[in-house]
Design a protein that fits this description.
With 378 residues, this protein is an alpha/beta fold. The protein folds into two domains: 111 residues, no CATH class; 201 residues, Vaccinia Virus protein VP39 (Rossmann fold), CATH 3.40.50. Helix content is 40%, strand content 17%. The strands form three sheets. The protein has a seven-stranded mixed sheet with strand order 9-8-7-10-11-14-13. A four-stranded antiparallel sheet has the order 3-4-5-12, with no helix packed on it. A three-stranded antiparallel sheet has the order 1-2-6. The longest helix is centred in the last third of the chain and has 46 residues. Bound molecules: zinc ion.
Amino acid sequence: MSTRMLPLLPGGPITLASRYEYDGRPILRLNATQRAARDEVESKVRRVTYEFETVDCAVCGGVEFEQLSEKDRYGLRMSVVACTACGLIQTNPRMTQASYDDFYNSEYRRLYVGEEVPTDDFFQTQRRRGAQIFGYLVEQGALPKQPRDSFVLEVGCGAGGILEYFREQGCRVKGTDLGEEYLTFGVERHGLDLSAGTMADLELDRAPDVVIYSHVAEHLLDPVRELGHVREIIDPSGALYVATPGVKYLEHSYETDFLRLLQNAHTYHFTLKSLRNLLGASGFEMLAGDETIKAVFKRSPVDSARLAGAPDQAAYDSDFDSDYEDVLAYLRRIEKSRRGAAAMVRKSTRAAKRAAVGTLKKTRLHDVVRPSNGRESG
Ligand SMILES: [Zn+2]
């Protein structure tokens, strides 16, 4: 792992489309809060306050990558590559842990939600998400419909809205997150058991029956090691729930645009297959899952001594089902259909203009003939 001053591009030229080349322009409409946060990040990258590192593929140890993008949706410089061996899409080079820590404290929330404080609306949205996750876990047989004293742990819980729903259903809940402002909101307003820190800082008095990673795995720097740690603490018959944006769900999300999915906070970009490869390397096997992505995993019968002894080595030894050809073919198909749709819009815009000009001419003629009738001319 080498630390470099500025992001270098390890994967060569971008083959997907030229719009993924770095130009500093956002493709989202940013509000004033977001623009300020974006400018702060750029300035910190220029001043080398934020440092970058190049890493080997977390799942297969591969060192060869195909360059997919040089920017994210905010117009920030972001090197997104696909591992040519296992197909895992990742940000590489990426910021160092210290730089990400600074970024999450300083700009992340303002950039991502455009708001600086947790709100009741945000909490209720999370609570509704909790209801969906609960329903899914029951459906998959990972949790009883009327859980009595099941212990649910959420990593990256924010204000704890998801856990609130599980508590209402009779579960004992605990959450952990790095953002103290959100934790305080959940603790003070809702009396939830939430604490600051990472998975490694957690002290538990019993093994969780369910562990939730909702939109967290894509932010981790060393997901194989962290999820390997979850394997050690979870109840042997426990369930791990993971939700993350799905690269292969673009027909139904992010306006069918891979670029809109990219944000500099994300270190990984998963398909169900690449997520499964990752979890496999951490000692989990999939019970159920879809490309949206939501999925439930159970501990796989892997030698846990090997995992505990040398997590990295264990990861590289594990089998994976390469997603490289599949995911690249998918992204090229999406890009092609986007170009087709854009051409249709341009065509129909030209046709609409011609029609409008025609109508205008007719209207003027109409107005000359019957100047009193203005209502029907629009
Ligand atoms: Zn790989």
